[in-house]
Amino acid sequence: MITAEQIQSLIGPQLENTDLFLVEVNVRPGNKIEVVLDSDGGLTIEHCTEIHRHILRELDRDVEDYSLDVSSPDISKPLKISRQFVKNIGREVAVKLKDKSKVVGELIAATEKDFTIRFQEKILPEGKKKKEIVIREIKIEYANTQETKVQISFK
Description:
Layout: H1 4-15, E1 20-28, E2 32-39, H2 45-58, E3 67-71, H3 82-87, E4 92-97, E5 102-110, E6 114-123, E7 132-141, E8 145-150
Parallel strand pairs: 2-3
Antiparallel strand pairs: 1-2, 4-5, 4-8, 5-6, 6-7
Helix pairs in contact: 1-2
């Protein structure tokens, strides 16, 4: 059976010295291989085709049959790796935390272990009768999130 690690080792050298990066590799029963790529500068169909052809050249269908899909991340799917967070700085994201709470705001920073969201919150200041909107920033470790999705805006 073909493994995800085997596919990752085939792709790794092809991605070196490019702005392309691997988001995930899935190998499902029946050797259904799914490769998800992204790019700091924008992923093209040509990038996907080049990686697809490289994998086809390296794997022998006579030894083991498989199906192969190489694509970009689906906009409806959650962000998976820190490099995707860096790429999406400045965009609005919805974060579901492991404690079941949710934060929606602008992604303003990302590192290898955490990211920062800026959002508006209505609070009732002490001694006042009317709520005020304040802007807050929160740093969230990836380990504390259930999922983070980019919000699509048609404004």
